[in-house]
Amino acid sequence: MAEERKTAERAKERAEMLRLIDAEVAETAHWLGKDKLDPRVREALARTPRHAFVPRMEEAYAYENQPLPIGLGQTISQPYIVAIMTDQANIGPGSRVLEVGTGSGYQAAVLAELGCEVWSIETVPELAEAAAKRLKELGYGKVHCRRGDGAKGWPEAAPFDAILVTAAATAIPPALIDQLKHGGRMIIPLGPPDGAIRFTSTQDLLRIEKAGDGSVTKQVVLPVAFVPLITPPEDAAREENGGED
Hints:
Blueprint: H1 2-27, H2 29-32, H3 39-47, E1 68-71, E2 74-76, H4 79-88, E3 96-100, H5 106-113, E4 117-122, H6 125-137, E5 143-147, E6 160-165, H7 174-179, E7 180-190, H8 194-198, E8 203-210, E9 216-224, H9 233-240
Parallel strand pairs: 3-4, 3-6, 4-5, 6-7
Antiparallel strand pairs: 1-2, 7-8, 8-9
Helix pairs in contact: 1-4, 3-5
């Protein structure tokens, strides 16, 4: 009985989260160019148990429309932002998606609920291991995880229909453009790293589209504030040593 009550409460919380997302999408329609989410994206959000992707001490706030700390200086993104990034990627069942920045695994789970196959890369070892374990236990078999430098992508699985970068880069990684399929989209926050730390809108969420001839166009979707894209320590050390092992 207690478990049934908890399940019912979470269903109500998730419904309220979706209501708040809908309201914020309508409020930012002048940025987004639309006032409603793709219904498939909304349904994927409704199916994803966000409470399973936050630390136990944050579970009471899991379905609030706000980012939450997940440890090691990282966060799980605000549900509205997850919704927008997923919606802007223009993907659906069968799409091959690269995610840069697994974090807790929530965005990857939403993509899987949408019917996508996901390749997700995380720099922080502890987060990479925990997210891979969590996604497996929750039955997300179409999410492939590994630890590494997300800016280098996952070349052996490319090309991708979409690439979602969940941390702010100071420049668009060329490897990710190369791994984007012709006709595909990349959604990436771009801007100075201190913007996310101060939670100010000094970054822009970009939608990058790669045409059939390989040409690339960029469109600002929304002002945002993300934690910075991190280079793994071993890669940073290699760069400082002139690229020598």
